[in-house]
C-alpha cells in the first residue's frame, strides 16, 4: 500500500498496488474560501515499478452543484478554481469531474453548519503561574452526529523600547487535554504554525452543553505579561473530513513501524480516488488578564 502526497499543502491518496494508475480528485472546501479542486492521475505505478509523481489533467470538466451550478476553470498554477464560494451551510454539494479517456468521477458532501463558542475564559494556575487553563463552552445540536476540529491562535502584548509603545505580537499556542471527548478520538495534529489541533466527535456529549478545558503550558505565553489574547477556532467538519483526517494521521503514525496494522486512507470519490469534504468555522477571542 502506497500513499501519494500533494494536497494543497498535501495530497494523501491511498493506492492499491494491484490497480492501474488512479485518477484523483481532491477538494476540501469552506464558505470563507473560493472553490478549488485538484484533478490529476497518480504516477505511483509505472512500468510495473513504483515511482512518485503525478500528471495534472488540464482538460477536465469540473462542475459543482449546490446552491448553484458552478463550473471551475483550469489555471496555470495546476488546479481548477472559480471566484465563487460555497453558499449556505447545511447544503448538500456534489462534484462531477469528466475528461477524455477518464471515467466520470463524482462525490457528495454536506457543508456543516458552524457551531458557535458560547463563552470562553482563562485562568492562570500554580504558584509560579506556569500553566494556563482555557475553558470554552459549546451547545452541541441534538439527534445528529457532529464532528469538530479545534485550534488556538494567540497574541501577547508588551512594551517595545524600539517603538516606544505597546505592541502586539503573535504567539505559538500549544495545548493539551485529558477530556474524554478528545481521548476517544485518539487523534491530534501538531502544526508548527497553528499549534496543537484536535479532531473529535460528539459521541460523549451529543445534544448537550459541553465545557472544554485546555491546558496551555507557560512556554506558549510566559512573555505575555498581564495581557494575553487567545482566539479559539472551532471547525464543524463533515463526516468525510473527519474520516479522511483520522485515517491519514493513523497511517502516518504507523509509517516505519513494521508491527503496525495497515490503514487505508478514507476515499469518497466514486470511480476514482481522493476526498471531497467541507467545514465551517467560528472564532471566539478572549482577553486573558
Write a short abstract of this structure.
It contains 3 helices and 21 strands. With 289 residues, the protein is mainly beta.
Describe the structure.
The structure is a single chain. By secondary structure, the protein is mainly β. It is 9% helix and 49% strand. The chain contains three helices and 21 strands. The longest helix is centred in the last third of the chain and has 15 residues, at 239-253. The chain is globular. The relative contact order is 0.19. Residues 1-18, 46-50 and 189-195 have low confidence and may be disordered.
Structural key phrases:
globular, 9% helix, 3-stranded antiparallel sheet, disordered N terminus, 3 helices, 289 residues
Amino acid at each position: 500500500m502506497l500513499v501519494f502526497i500533494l494536497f494543497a499543502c498535501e495530497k494523501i491518496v491511498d493506492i492499491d498496488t494491484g490497480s492501474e494508475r488512479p485518477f484523483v480528485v481532491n477538494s476540501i472546501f469552506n464558505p470563507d474560501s473560493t472553490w478549488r479542486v485538484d484533478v490529476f492521475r497518480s504516477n505511483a505505478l509505472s512500468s510495473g515499478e513504483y515511482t512518485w509523481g503525478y500528471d495534472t489533467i488540464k482538460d477536465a470538466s469540473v462542475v459543482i452543484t449546490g446552491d448553484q451550478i458552478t463550473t471551475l476553470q483550469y489555471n496555470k498554477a495546476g488546479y481548477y478554481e472559480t471566484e465563487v464560494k460555497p453558499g449556505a451551510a447545511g447544503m448538500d454539494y456534489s462534484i462531477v469531474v469528466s475528461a477524455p479517456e477518464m471515467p466520470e468521477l463524482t462525490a457528495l458532501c454536506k457543508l456543516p453548519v458552524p457551531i458557535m463558542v458560547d463563552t470562553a475564559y482563562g485562568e492562570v494556575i500554580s504558584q509560579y503561574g506556569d500553566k494556563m487553563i482555557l475553558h470554552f463552552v459549546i451547545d452541541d445540536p441534538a439527534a445528529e452526529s457532529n464532528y469538530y476540529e479545534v485550534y488556538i491562535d494567540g497574541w501577547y502584548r508588551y512594551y517595545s523600547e524600539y517603538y516606544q509603545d505597546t505592541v502586539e505580537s503573535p504567539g505559538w499556542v500549544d495545548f493539551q487535554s485529558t477530556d474524554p471527548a478528545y481521548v476517544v478520538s485518539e487523534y491530534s495534529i501538531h502544526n508548527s504554525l497553528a499549534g496543537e489541533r484536535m479532531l473529535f466527535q460528539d459521541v460523549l456529549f451529543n445534544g448537550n452543553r459541553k465545557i472544554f478545558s485546555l491546558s496551555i503550558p507557560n512556554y506558549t505565553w510566559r512573555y505575555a505579561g498581564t495581557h494575553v489574547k487567545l482566539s479559539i477556532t472551532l471547525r464543524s467538519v463533515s463526516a468525510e473530513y473527519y474520516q479522511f483526517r483520522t485515517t491519514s494521521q493513523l497511517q502516518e503514525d504507523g509509517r516505519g513501524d513494521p508491527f503496525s496494522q495497515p490503514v487505508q486512507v478514507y476515499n469518497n470519490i466514486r470511480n476514482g480516488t481522493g476526498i471531497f469534504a467541507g467545514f465551517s468555522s467560528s472564532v471566539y477571542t478572549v482577553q486573558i488578564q
